[in-house]
Amino acid sequence: xxxxxxxxxxxxxxxxxxxxxxxxxxxxxxxxxxxxxxxxxxxxxxxxxxxxxxxxxxxxxxxxxxxxxxxxxxxxxxxxxxxxxxxxxxxxxxxxxxxxxxxxxxxxxxxxxxxxxxxxxxxxxxxxxxxxxxxxxxxxxxxxxxxxxxxxxxxxxxxxxxxxxxxxxxxxxxxxxxxxxxxxxxxxxxxxxxxxxxxxxxxxxxxxxxxxxxxxxxxxxxxxxxxxxxxxxxxxxxxxxxxxxxxxxxxxxxxxxxxxxxxxxxxxxxxxxxxxxxxxxxxxxxxxxxxxxxxxxxxxxxxxxxxxxxxxxxxxxxxxxxxxxxxxxxxxxxxxxxxxxxxxxxxxxxxxxxxxxxxxxxxxxxxxxxxx
Length: 372
Hints:
It is built from nine helices and three strands. It is mainly alpha-helical and 372 residues long.
């Protein structure tokens, strides 16, 4: 149903959105984004920088006359990448995590692609005119000055953070806030632990590569014993090279499946937390208005009551939208993680089978070498 709503609002197919290429100029990454027109076979290709993505996100945040907008769990935009600063010690690497690994920023492109697909299939966000402009206009929109919406003001108001601990009047949302706090922490820990595993696998692959190369230094033809020893070194070098390739494949599988899944889960939990916080702020505002109405003098009471009804109506609408978003969020996150776990298991199983077959061949070669 969401897909049909998106296609009714967009001139391109939401499921056809792809990031097909990337070019780098210093710290500026430019992404080639392709999509397919709904009314024919014509394709569209535009080039966007991160500033364009940020403009789109700000445009989604600052929409006007969209009922219950604050109750939406906005698809999380990955943090900005600074390619020339990414290494194992920088803040940039810690911020990007899995998205900084892999060849040619493939993981980062995949995360941005998924972000666009999530926005384009959302029944409300897909109607934003900025999305259509982002996907089909050849001119870069990122140079336009984004309007500062309510979400920017909320995020910048440090004093609002005290409202996070404000008790909710609805058990559904109080329980959801507690669950979100718990799962967000667990997701972050799981992501960091798997990232450590992948980085260790990459370091082991690098060490195996050095060891395999160094074994060639032992080769010489001085006498029969030296020749025999050289054969052993060369064969061992091939075996270590196979071990290296296995580590690389296992690390790549972890990165492109489970790694991206955990990264997405962690960022979406933060997105849900932000939505719940926005609703809590509106709840506090409503309670404050109610208290003010009770204390209002007779000549101002009618105006205050009207204002209270308006705020209460807005709060109820936000809560209604939020409940729908939460239900969809739980359903979709389970499906996404399930599919990524299946892909992870299948890829690691295939890699293990290939490695076992290759090791068997090397074992047989070693037996034949010693029987000669």
